[in-house]
Amino acid sequence: MSATPTVEEARLAESGSVGSQILTAGGLDPVADAFQTAICGATSLAQAQSIVSQQGESLWNLAVGRAQGTVAVAGTLPGDDDRPLYWARLSMALTLRRWTPGFTLSGNDRAALEESLERASRGMTQTAFPGGAGRTTLFLSGFDPFSLDSDERQGNPSGSVALSLDGREWTGSDGHVYQAQTVVFPVRYTDFNEGMVEDVYTPVFTAGTAHKADMYVTMSQGRPGLFDLEVYNGRRRSTTAPDNNNLQGGGSYYHPVVPPSVGAGPEFVPTTLPVTTMAGAANYQPFHVRVHTTVVEIPAGRWWPVTRSNGPTSGSTAVEGGGGGYLSNEIAYRASLLRDTVGTGVVGGHIHTPVLDFASGDSTGLTDPTFEQNRENILSQAHILIESTGLTF
């Protein structure tokens, strides 16, 4: 079948693309090839559904195993590099889009298969905690790489953090035991508009289920050289920056908008993480950790935005939360609004990691020692931040 790829898929489909090179260097091209063989052999919708679900989950589990050193790392890129997972998922999605089955497949059925692949390969179908007394359960979400039109080599350390922690149980430096479940979100407005955040996070706050967490962290890549512990999350989109499909969110700095499918709520919702304690425990190892209280608001009775360094004022309209007016702020707002609406005592908020940089002057290499060391440093310090909450339940 000849199908038009999405903008994301088209980046991969280009001959000799950086994405295809990362897929090969990450050793995941055989996984994408195996998916193509399997789906092309499907003889019924039920069989196709099973293949998509199983192989989507297998891709996620393989990426997690690579990051945690529990499976052999094929290829030349380190196991904790999040980029091969991103490009492997896109390869499988493009295969599914172009697939012509030997049986009747409705447009709705194809869309459902595509959605199933997305959710399964992002860890979203495997988020139940195994349980056990005396453990703090953590739910953490990261993001895909983005700004790929600027540099297709981009990685996202928040995705690497998610892969490094998914399914793990470990004892922290204080002797406390943690269990983690994680997912990675797309950098796409459409998925947020359709309620993906609420679908994933509602069980995290729902008492009496295996998905209920004690603590959650939404994490994304932020500013160069530092971690930001975001204190206030804004309700509205206000950036004109495009997503990974080069779509815009509908808002702007002077005309911020409430995103589709967001429930009723205040203009700002605060973190409930012990950010002062966290910053004190994890600072300068090697990145500075900032408790970030700055927001941009339109004060009550005014029409132009004002920057406030110490949080919002009463009656104002949100323009930017601490995390800006893009999807990182939005996931923090959506999750924290659910936290306060459901009200089951889960503690959480948003952490921005430093930007993952290549060595100065390196504009072509798929990786370099600086890039890999920066990722290792971010991962290590992110783990310290999580443990430094001191929260026990």
Key traits:
12 helices, alpha/beta, 16% strand, single chain, globular, 7-stranded mixed β-sheet, 37% helix, 393 residues
Structure overview:
Helix content is 37%, strand content 16%. The chain is built from twelve helices and twelve strands. The strands form three sheets. A seven-stranded mixed β-sheet has the order 2-3-1-4-12-5-8, sandwiched between helices. A three-stranded antiparallel β-sheet has the order 10-9-11, with no helix packed on it. A two-stranded antiparallel sheet has the order 6-7. It is globular, with a radius of gyration of 21 Å. The protein has 393 residues and is of the alpha/beta class. The chain has helices at 7-13, 18-25, 29-40, 45-68, 83-98, 107-120, 157-165, 189-193, 196-201, 275-282, 327-342, 369-387, and strands spanning 135-143, 169-171, 177-185, 215-221, 226-230, 232-234, 268-270, 288-292, 295-298, 306-308, 317-320, 347-353. Helix 3 packs parallel to helix 5 and helix 4 (45-68) packs across helix 7.
List the helices and strands and how they pair.
Layout: H1 7-13, H2 18-25, H3 29-40, H4 45-68, H5 83-98, H6 107-120, E1 135-143, H7 157-165, E2 169-171, E3 177-185, H8 189-193, H9 196-201, E4 215-221, E5 226-230, E6 232-234, E7 268-270, H10 275-282, E8 288-292, E9 295-298, E10 306-308, E11 317-320, H11 327-342, E12 347-353, H12 369-387
Parallel strand pairs: 1-3, 1-4, 4-12, 5-8
Antiparallel strand pairs: 2-3, 5-12, 6-7, 9-10, 9-11
